[in-house]
Amino acid sequence: MSFVSSFKRAYQVIAIFLHYGLDELLPKKLTPWYFRLWRRSLFWLRNRHKHRPGGERLKLAMQELGPVYIKFGQMLSTRRDLLSDDWAYELAMLQDRVPPFDSKLAREAIETELKAPIESLFDDFDDTPLASASISQVHTAILKSNGKKVVLKVLRPNVEQQILADLQLMRQTSQLLETILGPGNRLRPAEVVDDYRTTILGELNLKLEALNTVRLRNNFIDSDALYVPYVYEELCYPRLMVMERIDGVPVSDIAALKAQGTNLKLLAEKGVQLFFTQVFRDNFFHADMHPGNIFVSRQHPDNPSYIGLDCGIMGTLSDTDTRYLAENFLAFFNRDYHRIAQLYVESGWVSPDTDMQAFEQAVKVVCEPMFNKPLNEISFGHVLLELFRTARSFHIIVQPQLVLLEKTLLYIEGLGRQLYPQLDLWQTAKPFLEEWMSHQVGPKAMFSKAKKHMPYWTDKLPELPELIYDNLKLGRNLLGSQQQMLDKYLRHQQRSHTSNYLLITSAVLLICGTILFNQDVTLWLARACIAAGVVFWLVGWRSRPKIRKF
What is the fold, at CATH topology level, of the domain defined by 103-315? Predict the structure, then answer.
């Protein structure tokens, strides 16, 4: 994407925001005089939707801007603490009620991937989409081979080009920010954008999503907390995915959940446990958990289970990050702010020369108010904002690999707030983390790791005596070589000292001989000194050691 194309896209984004009058929704303190002057200079970009409420304007603007912005709106829709109910309701429509594209185009795309007519593989294909989202839409059908109800998920036409254009614009903007911020900045916007690019491009490959779905399903195959639909892998392609059709209640439909007698407290607790299980047990977590992707089974409302869809965005962490993250959570739960400060230094998230005592106190000020409060009185958005303010003082480095996890935590908070606002998040998560940590350290953990590596060591055990002998022999040879090198070095140093002594003596004799040469009475002594000096010089020069490499 050229600079001209990026400029055109940037202008298009600004024009859409101004056409929907989103600038008029900003608080006055965020619109200084130079912003208002800039706005007036764009007099031809007028607000064309003054009659619409603010939430609807924002929703329509994001729909028009495309998938990247729609996904941002999806995340915002779960934040009832940040938005009013009217705004949250409007943005919630971005989850699965994005305007559909023409069913003829959907049929063409499906048959192109299948390389066969739809009727040859499916019965009762419904041209009216069941759901329409930012990147794809879903149609229902019945599989001819077994009579099972299925859904066909197909990508929107030209969606790749739209996303690539926005990603390129974001990349160029991030590079400009890095230039402004200077080297060594903490936010690393370019890395964050690159990480997001990898994530969202993976979502454009429905074959990859199918593999992710199969893996998540296998992780919870015997779970009563999460059900993941079956995927027909043989019918999955980069732009098409076929999977089992499920029947559930949208997690956002609280009225329907209450009508069927769903235990909302247990459902909320299971949601928290599922998140921590995916992150810490499996290190493979669903990172797009907005309400449009989460349903609740109609069976067993007294012991409800979730139904998870759309595994296009999945997150993983390194073993080191997972360990530090778990310890950080536990330290938070135990109010051990000194340990939190230590962990930030050990993990490399802050500089080793950070004032630990001041940092510990700053974390305490931010986090202490969160305890002993129900979820409806806790704003993670506010806490994150305060932590970023703290970051500016203590040079905390933003970790791009944790961005997905942070986004998922925001989704979890939003879902928990809707289902059961009185949920005590800490008391729900703490036992799980303590049990997980007990499996990572101590004798039980050592036994588990030894058991895990036992097949490898069993395979290598017959080679062990030979390896020990070879290493002992090699060690002996190395010791002999090192002794030889040391002897050579000592001889070299001895010859060097002798040569230097003779050359210095020669210089002294030559100087004395030169001084005495001007005295007639000591002419013979001057000649003797000069002759001895020349002899000493020759002997010293010839005894110089040659330069060798040791």
Answer: Transferase(Phosphotransferase); domain 1 (1.10.510)
Residues 6+ apart with CB under 8 A from 97: 131, 132
Which of 96, 166, 288, 310 is labelled catalytic?
A: 288
C-alpha span between 127 and 106 (Å, rounded): 8
Residue 138 labeled ligand binder: yes
Token readout for 185 is: 């900045």
Span 45-69, pLDDT tens digits: 788 888 888 888 888 888 888 777 7
136 is in an annotated binding site: yes
Q: What is the DSSP string of 138-177?
A: EEEEEETTT--EEEEEEEPTTHHHHHHHHHHHHHHHHHHH
Q: What are the tokens at 98?
A: 């994005």
Residue with tokens 């004799």: 509
Write the secondary structure of 323-340 as one string of H (helix), E (strand) and C (coil).
HHHHHHHHHHHCCCHHHH
User: Left (φ > 0), alpha (ψ -120 to 50) or beta: where does 461 sit?
Assistant: alpha
Sheet arrangement for strand 294-297: 226-227, 306-308, 294-297, 248-250
- DSSP labels, 52-109: S-HHHHHHHHHHHH-HHHHHHHHHHHT-TTTS-HHHHHHHHTTTTBSPPPPHHHHHHH
Six-digit token pair at 78? 């779960």
Cα–Cα distance measured from residue 202 to residue 347, given in angstroms and rounded to the nearest whole number? 28
77 annotated as ligand-binding: no
224 catalytic per annotation: no
pTM of the model: 0.66
Per-residue model confidence as pLDDT tens digits over 367-381: 777 666 665 566 555
**Rounded-to-integer distance, Cα 41 and Cα 26, Å:** 18
Contact criterion met (CB below 8 Å) for 25 and 54: yes
131 is in an annotated binding site: yes
The verdict on whether residue 531 carries a ligand-binding annotation is: no
Rounded to whole angstroms, the Cα distance separating 64 from 299 reads 38
137 appears as a binding residue in the annotation? yes
Q: State pLDDT tens for residues 445-500.
A: 666 666 666 676 676 677 677 777 777 777 777 777 777 787 777 777 777 888 87
